[in-house]
UniProtKB/TrEMBL annotation:
Organism encoding this protein: Mesorhizobium album
Protein name as catalogued: DUF4352 domain-containing protein
Length: 184
């Protein structure tokens, strides 16, 4: 009897999992909008490709091109943080997921700075494009939202958890840093 009950439970769980696994498509976000991700408030400014060797001080390989996204980021938390590495996930067809961006504060070229609460800062995400890669016409990014929990289930400590895609942002890619900002 126990074997039949176990088999039935596994079958029901499998069927429920198969039908429950449907995911709704994530919405397309407006390029000129402010995007709230839990921890961060983002405002995309511009995306461009450049062949400059030293973009905001990022150590790029010479002779290659870089894809640059400039945006305004505001830390919405109560303390300084640099937990912004996973908030933007580029389309793997454009940028290899193993390629991590250099993230730079544009006003003084500080690499991976902690951003203070409530202070909007202009940041640049810089990805080195592989040699000979054609520059993309648009930069497609999945935006990730996290939820604040006063106490997590494992350690009982506060933090930002449950990363979830909230939308896809598609920005036109210009040529060079003089590309105009996206208008709100």
């Amino acid at each position: 009897m126990a074997g039949i009950g176990t088999a039935a439970a596994i079958a029901v769980a499998g069927v429920m999992g198969a039908f429950g696994a449907r995911h709704e498509p994530v919405p397309v976000l407006a390029p000129a909008s402010r995007i709230e991700t839990g921890q961060w408030l983002l405002r995309p400014l511009k995306a461009y490709v450049t062949a400059e060797k030293n973009v905001y001080g990022a150590p790029l390989k010479s002779g290659g091109k870089a894809l640059v996204l400039e945006l305004e980021m505001t830390n919405r938390t109560a303390k300084s943080t640099k937990d912004y590495f996973e908030v933007l996930q580029p389309n793997p067809a454009i940028i290899d997921p193993a390629t991590k961006p250099f993230i730079v504060l544009t006003r003084d070229s500080t690499l991976s700075p902690e951003l203070h609460p409530g202070m909007p800062e202009r940041m640049a995400y810089i990805w080195q494009l592989s040699d000979g890669a054609a520059p993309p016409a648009s930069l497609d990014l999945t935006i990730i939202h996290k939820t604040y929990k006063q106490r997590d289930n494992l350690y009982g400590l506060p933090g930002w958890f449950n990363p979830t895609p909230i939308g896809v942002l598609m920005l036109p890619v210009g040529s060079g840093p003089d590309t105009a900002d996206i208008q709100p």
